[in-house]
Every structure is written in C-alpha cells, then in structure tokens.
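Researcher: Next entry in the queue.
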Amino acid sequence: MAVLIIDYGMGNLSSVKRAFEECGADAFISEKPEDLKSATHVILPGVGAFRDGIANLTERGWIPEIKEAVLNDGIPFLGICLGMQLFASIGHEGQPTDGLGWLEGEVVRLQPQTATERVPHIGWNEIHMRGRSKLFDGIPDRSNFYFVHSYFLQCQVEVDVVAITPFCGSIASVVQRENIFGTQFHPEKSQKLGFRLLQNFLDLRF
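Model: Structure for this entry, 206 residues:
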C-alpha cells in the first residue's frame, strides 16, 4: 500500500505522513506528479488560501495528472481542509478563483450566527452524519474532530455531503463522491477517531 501525499507547498505534510505511518501505510511525500502512477491512495492536504492552492497545483503540473488518476483510474483520493475545498467549482477567498470542479459548489467565508461563534473556527467540534460512508466504520455519530479554517465548501448537490457540523449555521464537514473524499477537519490531529478514519480510507478499494 503506497500513500502519496501531494507536496504543492501548502500544509503540514509531515504530520499527515506520520499519521498514515501510524496506521501501517507506506506513506511518502512527493513533488513529482509522475509518482501518482505508483500510488494506491492519494492525499491532498492543505492549510492556506484557495487561490494559492490552485495556483501552486497548476504551476507544479499536478492538475492533469491528478485528474487522470482520480477521474479516469478511480484511485481513492482524500482532501483535507483546504485540500477538500479545492474540489469546488469556485472559491471566493480573495478574488474568485476556479477550483478543480469535482464537486458543484463554492467556497465561502464562515459567517457567525451567534455571539459565541468565532472565525476562524479553531478547535474540536462534532460531526453529524447525514449519509452512509465507509469512512465512518467504527466511528459513532456526533464524534468530535479538530478544525482550523475560516472558509467552507458550500455544496450544491446534497448527497455529496455525508456529514455536517453545527457551526455558523451548518457546514459540510465530510464530502464524498465515488472515489473522492474530503474532510474539513484534520483527521491527523484528531487523535484516536481521526486515525480510525484514516485507516478506513486505507481500506477502500475501487
């Protein structure tokens, strides 16, 4: 099992790599799109701005190779935080920027609904399951995971959202379409249940 973690200059790659190694995977960080051919699973982590993320993926030649691996070859693909947001049609962080376009929707800023809500959203919060997903095997509904973000993916297709989190109204915290998965939270920072989710991802075959 070879887990490729995409290095496009965004995010804490080493913590993601360590988390997958704890789950028993052979994980490696790569700057070379051609390495996708040797991977069984692919991770797109990310911390930072939507526009920078798309620009970096484009400049480093990742986008055509990712689309081939994910959309044509059906490799299991997991986006974490910004990595999930980049699935969208468009992002509004800074000026509007086209995303990968894998999920119809847009990335917009969190808007507090109560006096106690603060942006950025930092800390532990619940996920409320709305659909079935193998990512949740052995994970109870309303479990807590660790979030750090100011924007979120507003999906247009309801069935793409398999878990929500009650913050700023309601946000998509887990999305899924066929072999494409995304978590707004950081499973690598979410202790035991985060590692269970990563193990469930490693068990996926398409």
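Model: The CA atoms of residues 94 and 168 lie 20 Å apart.
Researcher: Noted, moving on.
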